[in-house]
Each structure stands twice: as structure tokens, then as C-alpha cells.
Design goal:
262 residues; alpha/beta; seven-stranded parallel β-sheet; 8 helices; binds NADP nicotinamide-adenine-dinucleotide phosphate
Length: 262
């Protein structure tokens, strides 16, 4: 349910304030990006399930800005039925929309020899089905306005099917492919679609993971994402050196790749 809105400063010709929806804003990359966007003058609708984290984040942003630049909306992305109305409510509350970022995601560990349909379903619902629910109304609106920006936080994990967490890989592969298709549809209408592929970011998601490398902070990831938005890039790796790494990983022949244990 949308929370009541405090007074959002209106956009004026001299102060063309931008408005964003950030789905998955309560921690990690999403929280850092909410702070970064607010510093750029965006008013950000911050969505996630953990109401307390969202409240704290929005208070912190609003205090630092001296005005309302972040508004919490408690929402579970697996509850897709409510998305069309919630999307409309936020757009009404904010007086329009310039940017939608889908950052929500989960990664549920599955043992190397285990198969767990419920975990696979939960992963797919949060990482992909929820994204469809949010990106569709944004795409439709931006297409008719002939402007707007869409950002999806995918992952390098979507580029190969690995033994470690098959449904996480598959959910990110689906998201990457969907974002590419959206870009191909929407570029002709002047709408920008950015796919973000992080490697490892130091967040709760990887707190128990071992053998991480090239780990960046959520703030560094947010900085790279903001640059991608500002420069209207079509896809970025975070950090950028993953592009070469993934080029190499993509061309490893399957008969070798299947012997790897990560
Ligand atoms: N950390 C990495 O190394 C890494 C690498 C590649 C890609 N990524 C991607 O980056 C994105 C952000 O992850 P993170 O690393 O910042 O981890 P995180 O701190 O765990 O953040 C995940 C975010 O997704 C939200 N979320 C999860 N399930 C949700 C649901 N059902 N409904 C609404 N919101 C939900 C969480 O909010 P609530 O729990 O409050 O709902 C939280 O705000 C994810 O898509 C992840 O796959 C991360």
C-alpha cells in the first residue's frame, strides 16, 4: 500500500526535478543508488518489503537534502497483482516519472547436488517475474511519452549456466534478454534502457560467499550505475573490467565449462 506523501517539491522550468521509482531500495546497491539519485536532485520512490529500513533510509536522505527527495513504499515484488495500481499511485503522487530502476533480487543458496523447486520459484519471482510486472507499465508509459529511462540490475551470473545456482543464473539471463528486447523496442521512441551487470558487490547478498574477487562497495556500484544513466549507456559491467572477463568466460567451450565447480 502507498504511504501518505509528505510535500514533494514541485518541478519548475528553472528546477526540472526528475522523478524515479527504485524497486529494491532497502539495502545494498538499491539503497546506495537511492542516495546517489537524491544527490543528483531526483525524488525517489523507494520500494521494498522491509519498512523499517526504508523509513530510515528515506529519513536520512531527506535530512541530508533538506527537503523530501525519498518516499518509502512498502511492497513485495511477488505480489504482482498490486503493481499496476501502485505504479499509477506513485506516478500521481510524484506528478510524473522519468526513471524506473528494478534492483530487487534474491540469491538462495542451493547445494551442489541439491534441487529445490520452491527456491527456484522464489528466485524467479523476485528476480524476473517482479521485473516484468514493474517494467511493463514503465515501458508503456515512456513509449507513449517518447522519453524516459529504464534500468535493470541483472548480473554477470546471467551469462552462463553454472553448477552453483542454476535458477539465479537463469533468472538473470531472462532479465538481461528481456531488457535487450525492451531496448530494441523503445530506442526508436527515445526511451533509454540500461542493463547493469555487476560482478561482486559487498552487500548482504554475498555476506556468506567465499572466493570473491574484484569486490566493489555498493557506493562504487551506485556511482557506476549513475554514470551509465547519465551517459545513456546500453549495458555496463560493474566494475568495467568484468566485460573482458565475461567475454573470455562466454567463449569457454561447454565441455570445459561443465568441469568447473563454481
Ligand atoms: N551483491 C552482488 O554481488 C551482486 C552481484 C550481481 C548482481 N546483484 C544484484 O544486485 C541487486 C541488489 O542486490 P544487493 O547485492 O544490493 O543485495 P541486497 O542488499 O540483499 O538487496 C536486495 C534488494 O532487493 C529487495 N528485495 C528482495 N526480494 C524482494 C521482494 N520480494 N520484494 C521487494 N523487494 C525485494 C530487498 O529488499 P527487502 O528484503 O527489504 O524486500 C533489497 O532491497 C539484486 O538484483 C542482485 O541480484 C548483486
Amino acid at each position: 500500500m502507498p504511504e501518505p506523501i509528505i510535500s514533494i517539491p514541485p518541478a519548475t522550468p528553472l528546477n526540472p526535478r526528475k522523478r524515479a521509482i527504485l524497486v529494491g531500495a532497502s539495502s545494498g546497491v538499491g539503497a546506495a543508488l537511492a542516495r546517489r539519485l537524491a544527490r543528483e536532485g531526483y525524488t525517489v520512490a523507494c520500494l521494498a518489503r522491509r519498512a523499517e529500513q526504508l523509513e530510515t533510509l528515506c529519513k536520512e536522505i531527506n535530512q541530508a537534502s533538506g527537503e523530501t527527495r525519498a518516499v518509502p513504499y512498502t511492497h513485495d515484488v511477488t505480489n504482482t497483482k498490486v503493481v499496476p495500481q501502485l505504479f499509477k499511485d506513485i506516478v500521481t503522487d510524484f506528478g510524473g516519472l522519468d526513471l524506473l530502476v528494478y534492483c530487487a533480487g534474491i540469491s538462495l543458496p542451493v547445494g551442489l547436488k541439491k534441487y529445490d523447486f520452491e527456491k527456484d520459484r522464489a528466485t524467479t519471482e523476485a528476480n524476473y517475474i517482479g521485473a516484468l510486472a514493474w517494467l511493463n507499465p514503465a515501458a508503456e508509459m515512456f513509449q507513449s511519452l517518447k522519453k524516459g529511462q529504464i534500468v535493470g540490475i541483472s548480473s554477470v551470473a546471467g551469462e552462463r549456466g553454472r553448477v552453483g545456482n542454476p535458477s539465479y543464473n537463469a533468472s538473470k539471463a531472462a532479465l538481461t534478454c528481456y531488457l535487450e528486447a525492451l531496448r530494441n523496442r523503445l530506442t526508436r521512441y527515445g526511451v533509454h534502457v540500461l542493463t547493469v551487470k555487476p560482478g561482486f558487490v559487498q552487500t548482504d547478498m554475498v555476506k556468506d560467499a567465499k572466493k570473491l574477487f574484484w569486490v566493489v562497495s555498493p557506493e562504487q556500484a551506485a556511482e557506476d550505475i549513475w554514470k551509465g544513466i547519465r551517459k545513456r549507456k546500453q549495458d555496463i559491467y560493474v566494475p568495467a573490467r568484468w566485460r573482458l572477463m565475461m567475454f573470455i568466460i562466454r567463449i569457454i567451450p561447454s565441455f570445459i565449462f561443465r568441469k568447473l565447480t563454481f
